[in-house]
Structure prediction request, 232 residues.
Amino acid sequence: LHALCSTAMFVRLSSSTGPTVCRSLVKGKVGENITVPCSYNVQSAGGVTSMCWGRGSCPSSKCYQTIIWTDGWKVTEQYNSRYTLKGDLPTGDVSLTIVNAKEADSGTYCCRVEIPGWFNDQLSNHEVAIEKARISTASPHTYTSEQTTAHGSTSESSSTFARTWPPVSASEASQTASGPCSSTTDCVDVTTNLQNVSVSFPSQQYSENGLYIGIGLCAVLLAVLILALFLA
Prediction:
């Protein structure tokens, strides 16, 4: 609430004998209950008196687009249920409360207290500004990890976890790719098995080649023996 009303800031109308007009600025947000302050001195006014609230600047008499009238003791006319007087009327508190404020409630409001006598009415114009509530647009955090492709290349991200795999043949890679390990221990076991296969594979190949050569020599000697017996 930014009140600009003070004794030194009274703004008079064109006539030097006219009533003084006080101005203030009230800010609020959509959905809030906004209170526009207005009060008068009951003793100086000669007792409790009538007053009105209206939209627009205060005219020379009464209120334009009146929204509330009070006889000083109670509300006698109310044109919108969202506009109420919740202050203590007999003590001069005639502040206007806007319930569940909307953007359309922005604008100028006039508080007119009718004080007996010529040009004695207490006038105050209040600028009301209702703004939309701010909505947070912060995006959620995204967490990603490093992925290893079939060719051994890696893609970097905010959190990286690199694994080094032993070189395997294309056939072994196709077999192991279909069944990923379910835990870190399983990954270690698979790695050990692959290393054992890669180490023992050449020796087994050499043994099988020697066996094939021996069988071939035996077959040749047997054929030569049979041929010699046949010729004899």
About this structure: The radius of gyration is 48 Å. Confidence is low (pLDDT under 50) at residues 1-18, 142-165, 171-182, 197-202.
